Amino acid sequence: MPDDLELSKGGAPQQKPRGDDDVLTTAQGAPIADNQNWLSAGPRGPQLLEDHIAREKIFHFDHERIPERVVHARGYGIHGHFELKKAIPEYSSAAIFNEVGEKTPTFTRFSTVAGNKGSPDLARDVRGFATKFYTKQGNWDLVGNNIPVFFIQDAIKFPDLIHSAKPAPDRGFPQAQTAHDNFWDFVSLSPESMHMIMWIMSDRAIPRSFRFMEGFGVHTFRLVNAKGEAKFVKFHWKPKQGLQSVIWNEALKINGMDPDFHRRDMWDSVEAGDFPQWDLGIQVFDEAFAESFEFDVLDATKIIPEEQVPVEIIGTLTLDANVDNFFAETEQVAFCTQNIVPGIDFSEDPLLQGRNFSYLDTQLKRLGSPNFTHIPINAPKCPVHNFHQDGHMAMTNPKGRANYEPNSWSGDMDDNREPRGPRASAERGFTSYEAPVAGPKVRVRSETFADHYSQARQFYISQTPVEQTHMGNALVFELSKVERMDIRKRMVGHLRNIDDGLAKVVADGIGMTEMPPAATPARQPITDLPESPALSILKNGPDSFKGRKLGIYIAEGGDADMVRALQEAAKSAGAMVEIVAPHVAGAKLSDGKMMAADQKIDGGPSVVYDAVALVMDEAAARNFGEDKPSIDFVSDAFAHSKFIAYVPEAMALLEGAGVAKRMDDGFIELSKPAAAKDFIARCAKLRFWDREAVKKD
Ligand code: HDE
């Protein structure tokens, strides 16, 4: 029993940290004597309904789940802060953009779109990148994706898009993938999807980590300055870690090996103090540019190439604290596109306008009450004053009598009257930009939205040959899962408008004997746009092994100095290291000492590492040359174009894995410990892509 009761009024009831000496209580605070046995009539029952303690426990358990998000169900949240590096008062009056050095707390949730809460992290999918900025003027939510365009141009099509991508309603599968008839049927009937299709068939849809992907606000928004002047803006997140993806065969294996690969990666790097950072960039342009641009800036299936409107960096997001409680924070966080602050405004993008309705609506369903803003993760960190009241789970209830406005309570406490409460402020409050609006009420798609292929083609031709091959392979994989021939043909018909070479690769890959006719474009001609190098991952590689992970496969008798040299070299490059061994207990190295392992070999396959090293004696290598997990460790690393370091004694394993005769410059022999440094330096390239080029020829 506590000595004193805290006689507080209101406030959110919080469980204090649970200590070792605390007595278990019911939700009403009554102490519990036995948490193992239901009250019963005699030792062999029956159980008594009277047991209020057992019933309360089961009752609470029965109601633990809330509906998962209808899209973006699987996600991972993390705290951080945004620091402004460059003030932009000429563009925006928002406080968050006006004081250099100011730090604004944030919460970011990364997600996949199609899969349910328990689906694997490396599904081929768009990734959500949603950030809540707890600014001094209220919460601003930038609810973006890792791809700068979207499948559709009008929000009314969203339920159909998502229905087609999610499991078919009759059979309830396939989960977390688009490789099925319904999805390809829908997109092939919606040519506006073609640009997005290019992006999701690229390696952008299988990022190596949340840390290594870009983020985009997608829509055109407005920035409004203190004089009420507006400019258009597109928001970009640029990872300081650089861009990196896995390849499809690797993704398939990671999903089996570690379905939590992305969330584990984020958790581990933050726990290790390696905080990921993104620069916030803006592309700012005016009405005149919007008028002169080849495409409509309100069309979310289009980008504005960075070469045309450069991205100005204005600040940095640092993610530096994992959540304390997944449900309370990651699950209950509610992002809404309508959460904007003075100085930021919407544009007339029809997709954005639809989203503004959807997010608030879905939060009510998911969190069960309009008071979800009282949940700590959603509550603004600035003062909140309004006359909203009551409702389920109301936690912050206002004091006093005045609960309406206007009112004539004085606000002057001396005359014994009640305070009058808050008032709107024309100077400090949000005012919508006075964009002129006129026109008949119609249901039409603007003519200016009609070009569906030019930017799709631009994306494709901006990729390196390796990336183009991956896109071709992805399309072949997906369309091979489509059963209906007419859908496959319709898709190849679209590809012919994007790139004939790609259309041919895909047609051949799915065994199509006759090339279907090209789809009829809604608008002719399809423009030949210049390459945009910013669209390629490999052209923008980080050239650093920092934040990446080396797997060292050790065995009895392995050279202890070499293992240590590798560990040190990786560490000084800012990389992480895991030791893999035949047993999790580790292995006795050449110095006679046991080195503990992080993973047993079949729990630490090479797909979870960025590069691998083999340090073992000859006898072990001979044994492993016949051991399936060891063979896979090497042959997968080879197939996935990874750098492979090996001590000369490990040759028998390379032979057993069938790669000894195909060794290329991606193999580095570790003849003496000094070689460890050279190996890690080589790993800065992340992959030895020449290996793929050779395989292709
Ligand atoms: Fe969303 N989207 N969306 N979306 N979206 C949701 O809101 C919706 C779109 C995005 O981590 C839902 O809270 C419509 C584009 C992210 O909690 C829902 C349309 C972009 C997240 C919803 C779109 C996004 C969501 C489901 C078509 C990138 C996860 C749960 C107009 C710019 C946020 C929820 C989180 C979540 C509706 C299209 C990003 C149903 C109607 C485009 C990152 O409200």
What does this structure look like?
It is an enzyme of class 1 (oxidoreductase). Its EC number is 1.11.1.6. Keywords: Heme, Hydrogen peroxide, Iron, Metal-binding, Oxidoreductase, Peroxidase. By secondary structure, the chain is of the alpha/beta class. The chain has 4 domains: 21-64, Irregular (Cytochrome C Oxidase, Chain J), CATH 4.10.91; 75-374, Catalase core domain (Catalase HpII,  Chain A, domain 1, Beta Barrel); 465-538, Hemocyanin, N-terminal domain (Up-down Bundle), CATH 1.20.1370; 546-696, Class I glutamine amidotransferase (GATase) domain (Rossmann fold), CATH 3.40.50. Helices cover 27% and strands 15% of the residues. The chain has 19 helices and 18 strands. The chain has helices at 52-62, 158-165, 181-188, 194-200, 248-257, 261-271, 287-292, 326-331, 350-367, 454-461, 465-480, 485-498, 500-509, 560-572, 618-624, 628-639, 651-656, 675-683, 690-696, and strands spanning 75-84, 103-112, 127-135, 138-145, 215-216, 221-224, 230-239, 277-285, 312-322, 344-345, 549-554, 576-581, 587-588, 594-595, 599-600, 611-615, 643-646, 667-669. The strands form 3 sheets. Strands 1, 2, 3, 4, 5, 6, 7, 8, 9 and 10 form a 10-stranded antiparallel beta sheet that branches. A 6-stranded parallel beta sheet has the order 15-12-11-16-17-18, sandwiched between helices. A two-stranded antiparallel sheet has the order 13-14. Helix 2 runs antiparallel to helix 3 (181-188), helix 4 (194-200) packs parallel to helix 10 (454-461) and helix 11 packs across helix 13. The longest helix has 18 residues, at 350-367. It is globular, with a radius of gyration of 29 Å. The termini are far apart. The model is unreliable at 8-13 (pLDDT under 50). The chain binds CIS-heme D hydroxychlorin gamma-spirolactone 17R, 18S.
